[in-house]
Design a protein that fits this description.
By secondary structure, the protein is an alpha+beta fold. The protein has 2 domains: 159 residues, Sandwich (Jelly Rolls); 105 residues, Homeodomain-like (Arc Repressor Mutant, subunit A, Orthogonal Bundle), CATH 1.10.10.60. It contains 12 helices and 10 strands. The longest helix is centred in the middle third of the chain and has 19 residues.
Length: 285
């Protein structure tokens, strides 16, 4: 695989009225403190193809985990963030950013609306390489041909998106556990209870959940709670203690510890620096 620098295009308005590529590039993220967060979405949709290591993140509070050969789709109109997965020393991915009036219908056509993570997309490695080589060689003159390759890439992703449930017998159980968690973030949850909900042993659930997501179920739960908390902390009428209780932590100290472990900052610092900005005053507890 040839390394490439980032390339940012300048498509004409008529291209933006349909679909066009905005930028391409690659990133080799390292563990903490490296994190990336877009709380207000982005100016385009970003397709990320993992070529080494693994990463975790969320889209609008729904977590995902991605390994080599997987694709992540970061929507332009929803908050999202990502980082190197726990236990991994890197997350190396290539990105293609695309935008245009037709993009929402395009994603819907390929069945990718709301899909943040698609596994087993190794088949797109060659067309992704072709997009990178084309735009670095021809610049804007290659935009239309690159868009044609993007259509091919989306076809291959659509094909991969249909595979996991049929090929992995425990996929339904893992998805059911995720849904069980999402509906009970304010309640005490333990591995034994999650396993019982899908008629598995705790050991078996832990193993298959990690195989499908890259993280154990209780780490996934903490990520969901932290992401939900970040969304709630933007509501100025809620105190930090209220947010902690809403995500299953009635003891403020325990909530603050979990939040800092998952985000790198305390809830009050998040409010002060992210929600309100540097000139903010502390929120009451």
């Amino acid at each position: 695989m040839r390394p490439y620098k980032g390339f940012f295009t300048s498509p004409p308005p008529i291209d933006r009225a349909a679909v066009t590529l905005i930028s391409i590039g690659e990133s080799d993220m390292r563990p903490q403190p490296a994190r990336f967060r877009r709380d207000k979405g982005w100016h385009s949709t970003q397709l990320m193809f993992v070529v080494a290591g693994s990463g975790v993140g969320d889209v609008a509070g729904a977590p995902f985990a991605a390994g080599v050969g997987d694709v992540c789709l970061m929507p332009k109109d929803l908050s999202h963030g990502y980082e190197v997965a726990p236990g991994s020393d890197r997350w190396h991915y290539r990105w293609i950013e695309f935008d245009g009036a037709c993009v929402p219908n395009l994603l819907a056509m390929f069945g990718l609306t709301g899909r943040a993570h698609i596994a087993h997309c190794d088949a797109i490695a060659e067309p992704v390489e072709q997009v990178f080589a084309l735009l670095h060689a021809r610049r804007e003159a290659g935009l239309h041909e690159a868009c044609a390759l993007l259509m091919h890439i989306l076809v291959l992703i659509e094909r991969a998106a249909a595979l996991p449930i049929a090929q992995q017998p425990h996929a339904v159980s893992v998805d059911a556990v995720k849904q069980h968690m999402a509906e009970r973030l304010d309640q005490p949850l333990a591995l034994a209870g999650l396993a019982a909900a899908v008629r598995m042993s705790p050991f078996h659930l832990n193993r298959v959940f990690r195989q499908r997501t890259g993280v154990p179920p209780m780490r996934w739960l903490r990520q969901m709670r932290a992401n939900r908390a970040k969304a709630l902390l933007h509501r100025r009428e809620l105190k930090v203690a209220d947010v902690g209780r809403a995500v299953g932590y009635p003891v403020l100290q325990h909530f603050s510890r979990m939040f800092k472990q998952e985000t790198g900052m305390t809830p009050r610092r998040f409010v002060r620096e992210i929600v309100r900005g540097p000139a903010s005053t502390p929120r009451g507890s």
